[in-house]
Design goal:
This protein has 152 residues and is an alpha+beta fold. 30% of the residues lie in helices and 29% in strands. A seven-stranded mixed beta sheet has the order 2-1-5-4-3-8-9. Strands 6-7 form a two-stranded antiparallel ribbon. It is globular, with a radius of gyration of 14 Å.
Length: 152
């Protein structure tokens, strides 16, 4: 599990073009890494659209936004094209990145327990240090709150 003050893990992800990358590829740049359960579902779509609406503001603040799920790269590509998303979407199909960040957790719905991604966001400094963590995120207003923190 990654906490404030920790260095981010080096696990690899894939972008929507199935190209591999790590957060180390963004050395020297500040990042927002947000985890969401599943592309093209109502809450995840709203969150991605909110971050996209503020993409220019994040860029002006020198921050790259990366959304992470376990969806396949092809699904992320379709999701991004369908909604005109400007944020970088990353696939952690194997789950190692989610586990390293502590976002792969046991969840419960209608009395059934299962494993899934907890909606969580991390603000990362240019040296790979986690500056702030937002656990158990509620979508409404979250992207704006993260932008305010990123500007500080």
């Amino acid at each position: 599990m990654v906490n404030e003050g920790d260095k981010v893990p080096g696990a690899a992800l894939e972008n929507r073009a199935s190209e591999s990358f790590t957060l180390a590829d963004y050395a020297g740049k500040r990042l927002v890494v947000y985890f969401y359960p599943k592309a093209d579902t109502p809450g995840c779509t709203s969150e991605a659209q909110d971050f996209t609406a503020l993409a220019d503001d994040f860029a002006a603040a020198g921050v790259t936004v990366i959304g992470v799920s376990k969806d396949k790269p092809a699904k992320l590509k379709k999701f991004a094209e369908k909604y005109g998303l400007k944020v970088l979407l990353a696939s952690d199909e194997k789950g190692g990145f989610c586990e390293a960040f502590g976002t792969w957790v046991e969840k419960s719905m209608y009395g059934r327990t299962y494993m899934g991604i907890e909606r969580k966001t991390f603000l990362v400094d240019g040296d790979g240090t986690v500056l702030r963590v937002w656990p158990k995120v509620k979508v409404k207003g979250h992207a704006a709150e993260v932008l305010t923190a990123a500007r500080a």
